[in-house]
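User: I'll paste a sequence; please echo it back and then give the predicted structure.

Assistant: Echoing your sequence first, then the prediction.
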Amino acid sequence: MDAAAAQPRPQPLYNRLAFWAVFVGLITIGNYAARFGGTSRGSGKGVSQEDVYSWSFFASGLVVYAFYLGIVLLICINHFDLLAMRRPRGWGRAAAFGLSVIVAIVVWEYEVVSRLPLPESPAKEQGVTNVPWEPRHAGAFAANFVLFALIAPFVEELTFRGAGQSLLRFLGSWPSILIVGVAFGLSHGLVEALLVLVPFGIALAWLRDRTESVLPGMVVHAIFNGAALVAIVLS
C-alpha cells in the first residue's frame, strides 16, 4: 500500500473549506461571465501580442495574483501547513513523478485532444496566437514571462494543490485529487480547454498527493506555462 494512502485522514476544517470554495467559485463565475460576455478570456487565457509586450498587463496581473495569494494566506492563517510548502518525499522520486506528468499531458493534448472534432481548439479558445518577436519590447516580455511562468504557477499551486487539496483531504486521496482537478479547470472560465485543463489539474493534484508537497507541481506548472509563452514567439 502507498504510504500516502496509508496516512490517516485529517479532521475536516469546514469553515476554511467553505471560504476556499466560495473564493474559487467567485473566480470561476467571474471568468465564465467574462468569457461569454466577450470582455476577457479568463485567467487561463493565452496571450495576445499586446499582452506579451505590455507593462500594464504585467502590472494588472501582478495585482490580481497578489490579491489571490492574500486570500489564500488568510484562509490558511495559523494553519500554514495546509499549503504543503515542504520538501517532497525524495527529490529523485518527485522528479520521476513530475516527468511522468509532463509526458502524460503532452501525449494527451497533442495525440488525443488535438485530434477531436471540436468547434474550437483549446489553444484557440485561450487566445493563443503566434506573436512576432520584438526586441525593443524585450523588457516587458521578460516581465510577463515571470508573471506566467513563475508567479502564476506559484499562486495557483498554493490555491489548488496547497490549500484546496489539504482542506479536501478528509474525503480521501482520490476524491480530493479529482475535485481539485475539476475546480482548477473550471476556474479558468473556458470550455473546450477543459479537456486539457482538468486532466492537467488532476495530474498536478496526483503529483502533490504522491510527493506530499506543492513544490514539484510548481516546477511542472512553470515548465508548461513558460514553454507555451516561448512557443508563442518562436513558432
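Confidence is low (pLDDT under 50) at residues 41-46. The chain has one domain: 13-78+89-234.
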